[in-house]
TrEMBL record, chain A:
Keywords: Chaperone, Cytoplasm, Nickel insertion
Gene from which this protein is expressed: ureD
GO MF term set: nickel cation binding
GO-annotated cellular components: cytoplasm
Name of this protein: Urease accessory protein UreD
Species classification: Bacteria, Pseudomonadati, Pseudomonadota, Alphaproteobacteria, Rhodobacterales
Localization terms from the record: Cytoplasm
InterPro entries for the chain: UreD
Described purpose of this protein according to its UniProt entry: Required for maturation of urease via the functional incorporation of the urease nickel metallocenter.
Highest taxon of the lineage: Bacteria
Family membership: Belongs to the UreD family.
Pfam family, one: UreD
From TrEMBL, chain B:
Highest taxon above the source species: Bacteria
Keyword Protease: no
Ranges of Basic residues composition bias in the record: 234-246
Subunit structure: Homodimer. UreD, UreF and UreG form a complex that acts as a GTP-hydrolysis-dependent molecular chaperone, activating the urease apoprotein by helping to assemble the nickel containing metallocenter of UreC. The UreE protein probably delivers the nickel.
Main function: Facilitates the functional incorporation of the urease nickel metallocenter. This process requires GTP hydrolysis, probably effectuated by UreG.
Keyword RNA-binding tagged: no
Keywords: Chaperone, Cytoplasm, GTP-binding, Nickel insertion, Nucleotide-binding
UniProt protein name: Urease accessory protein UreG
Amino-acid positions noted as binding GTP in the UniProt annotation, renumbered to this chain: G17, P18, V19, G20, T21, G22, K23, S24
GO cellular component entries: cytoplasm
Location of region: Disordered: 210-246
Location, primary (coarse class): cytoplasm
Family according to the record: Belongs to the SIMIBI class G3E GTPase family. UreG subfamily.
Amino acid sequence: MFVSSPPEPAPHANHMVARAVLASELGPDGRRSRVSRLRSDGPLVLRPSHPKGAEPLTHRRTDAARVSLAAGTAGPLGGDDYALSIHVGAGSTLVLQDVAAMLVLPGAGGGRSRMSLDIRVDDGATFVWWPEPIIAAHRCDHTHDIRIEIAPDARMILREEAILGRHGEVPGNFASRLRITRGGAALYDQRLRFGPSAAGADGAAVLGDAGAVGSIIAVDPAWERGAPPADPYDRGAALTPLAGPAIAIGAVAADSLALRRLLVRGLDILGGPWIARHNGKDGS
Amino acid sequence: MTDETKSHRALRLGVAGPVGTGKSSVIATICRQLRDEFALGVVTNDIYTDEDTRFLKSAGVLPEERIRAVETGACPHTAIRDDVTMNLMAVEDMERDFAPLDIVLVESGGDNLTATFSPALVDAQLFVLDVAGGGDVARKGGPGIARADLLVINKIDLGPHVDVDVDRMVADAEAARHGAPVLALSRHRPETVAALCDWVRAIHGSWANGSHTPIDPGPMAPHHHGPKDDHTHAHGHSHPHHHPHD
Amino acid sequence: MDGAGGSAALLLLSDGRLPAGGYAHSGGLEPAVTAGRVTDMSDLERFLVGREETAGLIAAAFSAAACERSRRGELFEIPALEAELDARIPSSELRRISRELGRQLRRAMSAVHPHPHYDALGAAPHQPVVMGVAAASLDLSPRDMALAILHETNADAAAAAAKVLRVDPFDVHAILARMATRLDRLAGEAARAAQGPSADLPAPGSPLADIAAEHHRRADVRLFAS
Ligand SMILES: Nc1nc2c(ncn2[C@@H]2O[C@H](COP(=O)(O)OP(=O)(O)OP(=O)(O)O)[C@@H](O)[C@H]2O)c(=O)[nH]1
Ligand SMILES: [Mg+2]
């Protein structure tokens, strides 16, 4: 069973163990956010960056701290154990993006690969996490574990996309869990499993014959009196309010391109500052 | 128990009968005629759609929030007989939200001749037939026709067009009901509408002063659901016939 | 903690004929059929397996957890349990239905077998939570309760199959028979999880069921409420 604190795998000598750390804070001028801590480790390379691609929410501010993450050229591989810890300090805005999609592959000696992210978003902070898809390659065995604690007065938007195998390929075993707590109370907790050992994942209740699945979660204290209403805007996608000041956009599609289109449409429906701006520039 | 409201209990009046005989129309008529006299609420039961609720809301017979729909999972008879929880809660919610109500009308999803309300759900019930269904229907009997508190034979204005002798049909029905009340109704004949309203006033009066005894018309016709089902024995069981209002 | 309650009480709770309005729901099957994702028996089997492994397991674990906490008299844990369950149901429609069924079950059980714990639940408690409290009031064990919920999850959809699909009911029950050991295993998993903290209860998602449920609510014509 997939519990909240699974035992640490015992990594092999040739397996990669990486522990990276990232933190942002509000600068002395009380406006500009800056990276206060940045520690890359092995394949987990963190780099301050410039605005890139379509990124929602932050066009209101010109002073966000921006970082991009590269997780090696290929990997993690079976047996690898990556962890990234992120702290978005009070009042600061952090935008985290990926350099490229993450391809999870089986390792030479087999074994499970693992990536965990432990994220804290403090009061008044804004966290925008806009990663690229995770591609579960044939025969991979990957566990992806994301824990986020967000302060009641903080905002956040994140996207997650999982692709079931490279083109025309049957995926290996993939398990992810995204758990978001707000002020210590559960807000969103979803585990996703597919691959040969995930019975029924190919059924019509879970993923059917889809090749890609993803979601966008947005949290905003401004929705305290009610998040935007549900909108099943496509046969394979719906925007729904969560039981708190938050929404989820869930989408299931044939491939990564179709998935991305559905998620972008979902953001457009959400409107306002949540729309991903296609010119990639800061407005305001 | 938060879900129960004993304090402001209304008279719960069921309206059953086959599809299209005029249940919604009867309810609309009652609401239109009596809404100034009684505080009313309506619960409809849907089979596929929320047609009944939409019809009643668009007819404007009551404020929209006093008309609520229950979805019956394509089992309209179950919802008024075997498992009344959804309807019971809809009625209780209505009584609580608009207290004090005098009468809550419950429309059954149009089913067949055998579906009747459980006494756990309603205090009294109307069974609605129409002349368009044929003059023999009343003779065929069944629990609703034979023992509902009131049998309505609706759309009598159509009698000549469908070759039905209305007087004959009413006489047959009265025979099948051993003298219990039968009302020939047409929304185009004010005197019949007035008689319907009088009946509602009378049943509300006897219910309010405690002289009304709820009658269970009895379950549906014998049929089997499973080995332990005892639908069969109860069909013929005898009820004290009580008609304080006639 | 094992309940000393007898098997007869378990059968009472797990019987679909318990008058609590469950018959109006197809357990997500009609929405899946409407979406064109279940058209034959093999689709149906994958649907049922996927549903038991996700929504079924969640309902089982939460009812087992509610049973466990109710048995221990730790009702103060119920609000956190409800929040954890909300967090596991992204579809607002499915959360609403779970709470509606919970209210109905409480209404029925308060009449059938009254217990003070029912009053301690909020205005509209989730169905698995009410089930767990009902099980505790009948002195059943968390594992028994989990099994009952898993059985009901399948039974609701199987009963609906005959109405929304062209099926041979024997084939439908053959699927249920093949799934029997799976249900036993899931019940064990749910009961084990129920012993631990609420935050660690299983959280398997079912994205297509969430999406289809929202579409179903907006359909003009439907047999089942969900
Ligand atoms: N001629 C005539 N038509 C009537 C009368 N009452 C109702 N109708 C018509 O009969 C049709 C069915 O009436 P409804 O009130 O919808 O019947 P219902 O029993 O509620 O139907 P379901 O809910 O679908 O079972 C409608 O077209 C009404 O206009 C009447 O007194 N005379
Ligand atoms: Mg009607």
